[in-house]
Amino acid sequence: MRSHSLPLMMGNHSDLKLDNATLALLNSVNTRITISVIYMIVTVINLVGNGLSMWLLIFHTSPKTPSIIFMINLTLTDMAVGVALPFQIAYQLQGYHWTLGPTMCSVLTLVFYTNMYCSILTMMAIGIVRYLGIILPMRYRDKVGTGKKKSIAIISCFLMWGLVLCVLHPLMTTDLTFYIPELKITTCFDMLKKEMLPSKAAWATFLFSMVFFLFLFPFCVTTFCYVRVILKLAKNSQKTTQKKRAIRLVIVVLLVFTLCFAPNNILLLTHSVLKLFYNRSLYMAYKLSLCLSCLNSCLDPFIYYFACKEFRQKLRKLMNLTSVTSVDSMKMKHKESFYSAHFDSSEREHSKER
Description:
Layout: E1 8-10, H1 20-27, H2 29-59, H3 66-93, H4 101-135, H5 137-143, H6 146-167, H7 169-172, E2 177-180, E3 185-188, E4 191-193, H8 200-235, H9 241-278, H10 283-294, H11 296-307, H12 309-318, H13 326-335, H14 337-340, H15 347-353
Parallel strand pairs: 1-4
Antiparallel strand pairs: 2-3
Helix pairs in contact: 2-3, 2-11, 3-4, 3-6, 3-11, 4-5, 4-6, 4-8, 8-9, 9-10, 9-11, 11-12
Pfam family, one: 7tm_1
Transmembrane segments: 33-58, 70-91, 111-132, 152-172, 201-226, 246-264, 284-307
Protein name: G-protein coupled receptors family 1 profile domain-containing protein
């Protein structure tokens, strides 16, 4: 989730008593303005960067390899957040007062949650593709045909969405708005009714499932894949621009996980334990960590730049940074055959050279 805090689990409205941390956040004008400004900047960069990325990936990148399919999926989720963020900005500027009704609150909450976790799972899938292409190139090429790779990638995207929606199912069946008489505001997913789930055990299962299955496990898999890729590339004595670019790609991906996803999910887990079992909270810290998680949607285009050779070429040509002639293109394909053949559209050239 990118823009909503982990809610405080409350009872009915009559026995509502806000703790000091919650009151401090809801009454802090400076915090609301700061978060709103960050979201405004993210929205602009998100829509411009991902709009350009989507245009290049769909209409100017061919063939559609598994990596490209995963990138398109990632761009779709990022653009959904860019479209939804203005509603969150308005909510913040109005003092956490939601005026668009329960249905819209549920839809936007689901958008933010789904984006975050689909992004994590998609980046894991891209990491697995890179691992197979660099660490197990012969086995990956010989046992899985091009058409089958595309089919697996498309099915994987649907499975990711299905898994995330299954875990987040409680959010689709509950009124996520909550009226606070003390402040005369209606929050959207900043506080939830205890009866949303039947017991503490159910709450713990729901929250720990998000952290473990949708963050911790994918993070471990992605880290393993990219560390192995770095070690493999480091062993090659040939110092090339393509090798350096591939290593930079790994660094960018791990940086996104470390800066954008890890603080948010670690605080999610910590806050959940404190709130469920000790009636304490890290509400303010968790809310502020969401600003970092939003940055992911702005950094993804940089991942595409390092991951996809054809994306780089088209972007440079569009920005008049370089003109790629057919001869230059052939040279680039030859040079990048080892490092990016299984990353993008040069898979076919790699197969021929092997």
